Amino acid sequence: MRHLVSVRDISPHEVKELFQTADVFREHYYSGSWSGEVVLLFYEPSTRTRVSFELAAGRLGLRPVSIVPETASVQKGEGPEETVKTVAAMGVRAIVLRTREEGLPRHLAELDVLPVINAGDGKNEHPTQALLDLYTLRRTFGERLEGLTVAIVGDIVHSRVARSDTWLFSSFGIEVRLVGPPALVPDSLAEVLGAPVFHDLEAALVGADVVMALRIQRERARSEELPEPLDYHRRYGITSERLGTRYLMHPGPANLGVEVASDVVDHEHSLIRAQVENGVFVRMAVLDFIARGARVL
Ligand code: CP
Predict the structure, then answer these.
(1) Is the CB of 253 within 6 Å of ligand 1?
(2) d(CA 236, CA 183)
(3) Which residues neighbour 116 within 8 Å (Cβ) at sequence distance 6 or greater?
(4) Ligand 1 midpoint to CA 297 (Å)
(5) Across-strand partners of 64?
(6) Among 45, 88, 239, 259, who pairs with 114 as Cys (CB 3.0-4.6 Å)?
(7) 220 CB near ligand 1 (under 6 Å)
(8) Rounded to the nearest whole angstrom, what is the distance from the C-alpha of residue 48 to the centroid of ligand 1?
């Protein structure tokens, strides 16, 4: 694997191999055998993705180096293409990129001056989030994921997580349902993502094994698309009554009292902390794959 830009870049066979590597990192103390640096370039805010990539790199023996756009030559007008070529010339092993510009990771990967890992591009994709979500499902339900039903509830239209999750989960035989108000889950998404759309939460939850709640992305939505938070919570918020015996997931950050009730985040059926924990091991496996791929080139 040279780059990871989209979940569609990685085959089910490679995903399984990557998860076996993540299992090794989970189960055994790992003294890093890689050397060199990984650059983290985050043009958008992040807590989970950035910290877990920093931890993952450090545990492998790779040194994470962060470029903070506010204090970098971005302020002098330098664009991402020139930044990537500059750090590639310095001999770093890979770049982890978060941007609001959809398609930028693909464009930079095509320059092929160093491996590019997409840490989220606008509302397009967030492949490592989808991998850690699938890995969390595999640890909860076992190897056979076919027949599982996951209801993704919330602001699907602006969500890169929903896109990557739907494509990756579907390729493993998981039934995905897209749920929310028409402004945030238009019927046209059914064709784009290849999954049925529901506007009635209670109907969507019938037979669902897992509910994934998503944040309303105020930074991407137009004001007329934004629901009133209390009304949204009444219609689509995940409460312990609605959760029942299902498992709860959320990529974070969560707006408590809006898409999820505050008392369900640490509910016995919540996988939210497990998603965060697994993220470090899955990102270790991704970096390991990239480092191995880069070495043979
Ligand atoms: N899930 C996710 O990408 O979270 P951060 O924005 O905190 O990285």
Answers:
(1) yes
(2) 13
(3) 3, 4, 5, 84, 94, 95, 97, 105, 108, 109
(4) 31
(5) 38
(6) 88
(7) no
(8) 5
> Integer distance in angstroms from the first to the last C-alpha of the chain?
10
pLDDT per position as a tens digit, 161-201: 999 999 999 999 999 999 999 999 999 999 999 999 999 99
| Residue (of 239, 249, 258, 247) closest to 184 by Cα position | 258
**Cis upstream peptide for 253 (omega within 30°):** yes
DSSP 153: E
- On the question of pLDDT at 133 being above 50, the answer is yes
Distance (Å) from CA 47 to ligand 1 centroid: 6
* Ligand 1 touching residue 276 (CB < 6 A): no
Residue 110 CA to residue 138 CA, distance in Å, equals 32
Query: Can you tell me the distance from the alpha carbon of 198 to that of 128, in angstroms, rounded to the nearest whole number?
Result: 26
Q: Which residue has the tokens 């992040």?
A: 46
User: Contact, 184 vs 216, CB < 8 A?
Assistant: yes
Say whether pTM exceeds 0.85. yes
pLDDT digit string (tens) for 220-246?
Answer: 878 888 889 999 999 999 999 999 999
Q: How far is it, in rounded angstroms, from Cα 167 to Cα 219?
A: 24
Q: Please, what sign has the CA dihedral across residues 29, 35, 37, 38? A: negative
Tens of pLDDT, residues 55-94:
999 999 999 999 999 999 999 999 999 999 999 999 999 9
Whether ligand 1 lies within 6 angstroms of the CB of 251 is answered as: yes
Q: Is 275 in the pocket of ligand 1 (CB under 6 A)?
A: no
CB 174 within 8 A of CB 209: no
The two tokens of residue 126 are: 């967030």
